[in-house]
Design brief:
heterotrimer; A mainly alpha (228); B mainly alpha (113); C mainly alpha (490); A: mainly alpha; B: mainly alpha; Helix Hairpins; 65% helix; 0% strand; elongated
Chain lengths: 228, 113, 490
C-alpha cells in the first residue's frame, strides 16, 4: 500500500520533471548572453587561470566557495558534537593482510603527493582544492583500513582546519583592505598556464586543499572511533 | 536527452528509498542517490555537443570550443554540500542506533509525522 | 558610519574557524564570541539602515560587478530582516552564556554563530545559488543543533528535519538548474528581467520547485512536519532561534521569489490559500498539545500562516502588515520560548499541566511568558495587535471576507490555548517539588530586551513602520531592486 502510493507519487513527480526538462534542449548553447559565455570569453584575461572552472569557483564565485568550505567545517563540527563521548561499540575491526599493509605503506606517500599536486595545480589542470583534499583523505582512509591502530592526531587536524580556514578569510580581507572588495585579487596575474599565475587563486586553493583534506580525514577518524 | 532521463530516474529511485525503506542507512543512501542525480542533471545541462572541457591547456583552443563552465562549478559546491549532509545524517543515525539498538524506522518512530 | 557589509558574513565565519584554537586556550571565553560578533552585526545593520532606506546598498565581492560575480544587495527589506536576525541572534547569544552546560559547548557556540551568519547571508545575498549555499549553512547547523543534547528524541527530530531539509535542497537545486539553463544567469535581478522571455511552462515548474523548497524552511503547509519536533526537542535557545531566525530567512526567500523574481499573478492566490490552511491546521493542532514547547511550535507555524496570508494579498499595506507581523513574531516567540525553557526546567516537566502555580514560584519568569502570550494574541496596545489589525483589515477590504473570518477564528483558538496556560500559571496552586533556584542574570537580560522591544513597538508602532514601508515598497515594485543591482555594474 505504502509502496503503491510512493510509486504513484513518484510517477507524478517524474512525469512533470521529465516533461519540463525535455523542453530544455540538450547539448546546445541555449542562452547567448549568459554569464557562462562571458566567463569563457574573458575568463583567461580577467583571472589568469587556465582552468575556467577554477576561476569561477575561486574567483568569480569565490564567496560561494567560502560558504562551501564552511558547510564542510559545519559537518565536521556537528559530527564532533553529536558523537562526542560516545562509547565505542564492540565490534572487532579486522587486521588487514600483510600484502595490503605493505602496499598501503608504499602507496600512502604517493597518494598524499598526488593530492598536493592536484590542489597546487588547480588553476592549470582539472582538479583543485576540493579534489586534492579528497585524494589526501582517501590516502588516510587507506591507512585506516589497513592498520587497526592507525590514528590521526585530532589536535593537529583541527589546527590545520582552523588555520587554513582563517587563511581563506584573511586573503579575502586583504582584498578588501588593499583591493576594491572582499576576495578581490591583489596579486599580479602572471602568465597564464604557468604555476605562478592567476593571482590569489592558487593560494586560496592550497588553503582549501589543506582544509578539505584535514576535515574529511577528521570525519573518517571520528566515525571510526565509534567502533572499537 | 538520455542524460536527463537517467538523472531524473536516479532522483526518483532516491526519493523512493527515502519514502519506502525502513532501514535508516538505506534512507541515507537514498539521499546520496538523489544528490548524484541532481548533480548529473546539472552537469548535463552545461554540456554542449562536440565541445571540450573549459581549460585553456593548449594554445589552439578558443572560447568557442568549450562547454559551459558554470554548471561544473555549481556541481562542485553541490557535491560538497551533499557530503556534509551525508556525514551529519550518518552521525545522527549512529546516535539513534545507540539509543534503540535498531536501524528499523518502524520500531523507532515515536515522534509523529 | 558603517564598515563594509560583507564583514557581517566574513567575520562570523572567521570567528567560527578560530573558535577551536581559542577553546584550547580558554574554554570560558568562547561563549562571549557569538555575543561580540553578532553584536557587531547588529551595529552594522543599524548603521546601514539610513543608507539602505534611500537606495539599496550593493556590495561587490571579488571585484566582479553583477551579474559576473556574487554581490550583496542590501535593500530596505534585506536590511530590516538582517536587523531582526542579528537582534534575535544577539539576545539568544546572551541567553546562551549561562544556559549551555552540555559538552562540547564550544561546538554549540560555533554552530549557533554559523546559523546566524547563514541566515544573515540568506537575506543579504543577491545571487540565487549563493542563497542556496547560505540556506545549507543555516540548515546544516540547525540539524546539528537539534540533536545537540544527544538524547533519543533530539536525534530523531534531527533525522526527520534532515530528511525533509535535504528534500528541500534537492528541489531548490533543481529549480536553480532550470533557471540557469533558460536564463544563463544566477543573479536574481537579472533572472527577474530575463524570465519574461522564458517558456512559461519551464518558469512555472522552476517556481513550483523553489516554492516547495523554501516553503519547507518557511513552515508552509503541508511542508512543516519537521517543525514541531525540531522546535520542541532542540535546546530551548535553538527553538527560539528557529522561530526568530531560520523561519524568517525562509519567508524572506519565498517573498523574494514570488515578488521580485517571478511575480506571476496566480501564485499570490496560491500563497494566500496555503497561508490560511497553514494557520488553521497549526492552531487546531496547537490546542491539542500537552507539551508547552510543542504548543509554542505549532503556534509559530500558525503565525507564519498569517504572514503568508499577508504576502498573498500582494498589496502594499498587506505586505507592510505581514512584515510587521514577522517582526513581532521574531521578538515575541523567542521571548515565549526562552521563558518557557526555564519554566520547563523549574517545574521539572515538559507538560502544560505541570506549570500550575509557577506564577507564584517564579513571578518574573511567568510575567515574561504572560506578557509574550498577550502580545502575540494581539491584545491592544501590545505590538501583536497592530500587525494583526493591519492584515485583517486589508484582507477584508480586498473582499476576502471568508479568509478574514477563518483567520479570526484561528486567532480565537490561539487565545484559548495561550490563556489556558497563563491561567494555569497564575490561578492554580503550585505543585510540590518545583525547584526554586534563581534564573541566571544573562537570561533575564535577554528576556527583558525582547519584552522591552515588544512594549515599545506596541506603544509606538510607527517606529518600526517607518522602516517597514520602504521594505514593502521594495517587494511590490520590483524595478527598484532590479535597477539598483544591474546599474551597479556600469
Amino acid at each position: 500500500m505504502r509502496k503503491a502510493i510512493a510509486v504513484l507519487f513518484l510517477g507524478f513527480i517524474g512525469y512533470y520533471l521529465l516533461s519540463t526538462f525535455l523542453l530544455v534542449p540538450f547539448g546546445v548553447v541555449r542562452v547567448l548572453e549568459g554569464v557562462g559565455l562571458k566567463y569563457l570569453q574573458d575568463g583567461l584575461q580577467q583571472t589568469g587561470a587556465a582552468n575556467l572552472v577554477t576561476s569561477i569557483v575561486v574567483n568569480y564565485r569565490g564567496f560561494d566557495t567560502l560558504g562551501e568550505v564552511t558547510v564542510l567545517f559545519l559537518a565536521a563540527t556537528g559530527m564532533g558534537a553529536l558523537l562526542y563521548s560516545k562509547r565505542p561499540t564492540e565490534r572487532a575491526r579486522q587486521n588487514a593482510s600483510v600484502i595490503v599493509k605493505t602496499g598501503a605503506r608504499i602507496l600512502f606517500p604517493l597518494i598524499i603527493i598526488l593530492g598536493a599536486y592536484v590542489f597546487i595545480h588547480g588553476h592549470l589542470t582539472p582538479g583543485g582544492g576540493f579534489q586534492g583534499g579528497a585524494i589526501i583523505a582517501s590516502g588516510f582512509l587507506l591507512m585506516f583500513m589497513s592498520y587497526r591502530t592507525y590514528h590521526v592526531n585530532h589536535v593537529i587536524l583541527s589546527r590545520v582546519e582552523s588555520s587554513a580556514g582563517s587563511v581563506f578569510v584573511i586573503i579575502g580581507l586583504l582584498g578588501l583592505a588593499y583591493g576594491s572588495s572582499f576576495l578581490a585579487n591583489i596579486l599580479p596575474l602572471g602568465t597564464a598556464n604557468t604555476l605562478f599565475s592567476a593571482g590569489v587563486i592558487p593560494l586560496i586553493y592550497v588553503a582549501v586543499g589543506f582544509k578539505v583534506g584535514a576535515e574529511l580525514t577528521a570525519l573518517l577518524d571520528t566515525m571510526l572511533q565509534t567502533v572499537k | 536527452m538520455i542524460y536527463y532521463v537517467a538523472a531524473i530516474s536516479l532522483i526518483l529511485i532516491g526519493i523512493y528509498a527515502v519514502l519506502v525503506k525502513k532501514n535508516m542507512i538505506k534512507i541515507v543512501l537514498g539521499l546520496t542517490l538523489i544528490d548524484s542525480g541532481v548533480n548529473i542533471l546539472l552537469v548535463s545541462l552545461g554540456y554542449v555537443k562536440d565541445k571540450t572541457a573549459p581549460i585553456f591547456s593548449n594554445p589552439t583552443l578558443t572560447a568557442g570550443d568549450m562547454v559551459d563552465p558554470v554548471p561544473q562549478a555549481l556541481v562542485l559546491t553541490a557535491i560538497v554540500i551533499g557530503v556534509a549532509v551525508t556525514a551529519l545524517a550518518l552521525s545522527i543515525v549512529i546516535r539513534i542506533y545507540d539509543h534503540h539498538k535498531t536501524l528499523n524506522i518502524n520500531k523507532i518512530r515515536e515522534l509523529k509525522w | 558610519m558603517y564598515l563594509d557589509p560583507v564583514l557581517m558574513i566574513a567575520l562570523p565565519l572567521f570567528a567560527a574557524f578560530l573558535i577551536p584554537p581559542l577553546a584550547r586556550i580558554s574554554k570560558g571565553l568562547v561563549k562571549y564570541v557569538p555575543v561580540l560578533i553578532i553584536g557587531f552585526n547588529l551595529y552594522e545593520t543599524v548603521m546601514l539602515l539610513p543608507h539602505s532606506m534611500v537606495k539599496p546598498v550593493i556590495v561587490i565581492i571579488a571585484a566582479w560587478a553583477p551579474p559576473l560575480g556574487i554581490n550583496l544587495t542590501i535593500g530596505p527589506l534585506g536590511n530590516v530582516l538582517a536587523l531582526i536576525i542579528s537582534l534575535v541572534g544577539f539576545v539568544v547569544a546572551v541567553y546562551n552564556i549561562r544556559f549551555v552546560e552540555e559538552e562540547p559547548n564550544e561546538k554549540y557556540h560555533m554552530l549557533f554563530l554559523l546559523l546566524t551568519a547563514g541566515a544573515t547571508g540568506m537575506v543579504l545575498t543577491g545571487d540565487i545559488f549563493n542563497l542556496f549555499v547560505f540556506l545549507e549553512i543555516t540548515s546544516i547547523s540547525s540539524y546539528a543543533l537539534t540533536a545537540f543534547l544527544r538524547d533519543r528524541d533530539g536525534a530523531e527530530a534531527a533525522f526527520k528535519y534532515l530528511l525533509i531539509g535535504s528534500m528541500a535542497s534537492t528541489f531548490i537545486l533543481l529549480g536553480i538548474a532550470l533557471i540557469y539553463a533558460t536564463t544563463g544567469t544566477l543573479n536574481m535581478a537579472q533572472i527577474a528581467v530575463r524570465l519574461k522571455d522564458v517558456d512559461p511552462r519551464i518558469a512555472i515548474m522552476a517556481l513550483i520547485l523553489l516554492i516547495t523548497g523554501f516553503g519547507i524552511e518557511a513552515e508552509m503547509f503541508p511542508l512543516n512536519g519537521w517543525a514541531p519536533d525540531a522546535y520542541s526537542q532542540a535546546p530551548t535557545p535553538i527553538g527560539a532561534a528557529f522561530g526568530g531566525i531560520v523561519v524568517k530567512a525562509g519567508v524572506y526567500a519565498l517573498a523574494r521569489l514570488i515578488y521580485t523574481i517571478f511575480s506571476f499573478q496566480g501564485i499570490f492566490h496560491f500563497i494566500l490559500i496555503a497561508g490560511i490552511i497553514t494557520l488553521l491546521i497549526a492552531e487546531m493542532s496547537a490546542i491539542r498539545q500537552k507539551q508547552l514547547k510543542r504548543m509554542l511550535a505549532f503556534s509559530s507555524i500558525g503565525q507564519m500562516g498569517l504572514v503568508l496570508i499577508a504576502l498573498g494579498l500582494a498589496t502594499t499595506r498587506g505586505v507592510e502588515g505581514g512584515l510587521f507581523q514577522m517582526f513581532n513574531h521574531a521578538m515575541i516567540k523567542p521571548l515565549l520560548f526562552l521563558s518557557a525553557g526555564y519554566l520547563v526546567f523549574y517545574s521539572g516537566s515538559k507538560n502544560i499541566e505541570d506549570m500550575d502555580g509557577m506564577g507564584r514560584v517564579k513571578p518574573l519568569l511567568s510575567f515574561f511568558f504572560a506578557f509574550g502570550a498577550f502580545a502575540i494574541l494581539g491584545l491592544p496596545p501590545l505590538s501583536g495587535f497592530w500587525s494583526k489589525f493591519i492584515i485583517l483589515s486589508e484582507t477584508i477590504s480586498h473582499g476576502f471576507i471568508a479568509v478574514a473570518t477563518l483567520a479570526l477564528f484561528g486567532s480565537i483558538i490561539e487565545a484559548v490555548y495561550y490563556l489556558r496556560v497563563v491561567g494555569r500559571l497564575y490561578f492554580k496552586a503550585p505543585h510540590d517539588g518545583a525547584k526554586v533556584q534563581y534564573v541566571p542574570k544573562s537570561a533575564l537580560v535577554a528576556m527583558s530586551i525582547l519584552a522591552l522591544i515588544t512594549l515599545v513597538t506596541g506603544l509606538y508602532p510607527d517606529l518600526v513602520m517607518t522602516y517597514l514601508k520602504p521594505a514593502a515598497a521594495e517587494l511590490i515594485d520590483k524595478s527598484i531592486y532590479i535597477k539598483a543591482v544591474l546599474s551597479a555594474g556600469l
